[in-house]
Amino acid sequence: MTSMTELKFDATNKVLGRLAVEIATILQGKDKPQFDPAVFSAPKVSVYNTDHIRVTGRKHEQKQYRHHTGYPGGLKEETLERVMERDSRIALRHAVMGMLPKNRLRPRMMKNLILYKGPERQ
């Protein structure tokens, strides 16, 4: 019962969090009338122009992404602005991942998310 349709989103001038909510809803299959939380039936979701995503307020300077390397003193912090300069797909992937349920289906759902920095691929 897997549906292999592909949905396409253009991220130009869309707010990061609101776009992530839309994508997470589709990846979970909640947009379908036959939704079952234990069944994986998500379509592929492609997002184009992630370099043109907007954020509201002062999140570019204030939002922090943190991770620990595992070594003493290994807490690394990076602002949203630096993440967007490096690769804008990381910010969107992180936002969508945080909105999906933390269970065994999350990695399978994330495999159906395809992100492109530039325009739509033919």
UniProtKB/TrEMBL annotation:
GO CC annotation: ribonucleoprotein complex; ribosome
Keywords attached to this entry: Ribonucleoprotein, Ribosomal protein
Gene Ontology MF term list: mRNA binding; structural constituent of ribosome
GO biological process: negative regulation of translation; translation
PANTHER family for this protein: LARGE RIBOSOMAL SUBUNIT PROTEIN UL13M (PTHR11545:SF2), RIBOSOMAL PROTEIN L13 (PTHR11545)
Family note: Belongs to the universal ribosomal protein uL13 family.
Subunit organization: Part of the 50S ribosomal subunit.
HAMAP family, A to Z: Ribosomal_uL13
Role played: This protein is one of the early assembly proteins of the 50S ribosomal subunit, although it is not seen to bind rRNA by itself. It is important during the early stages of 50S assembly.
Protein name as catalogued: Large ribosomal subunit protein uL13
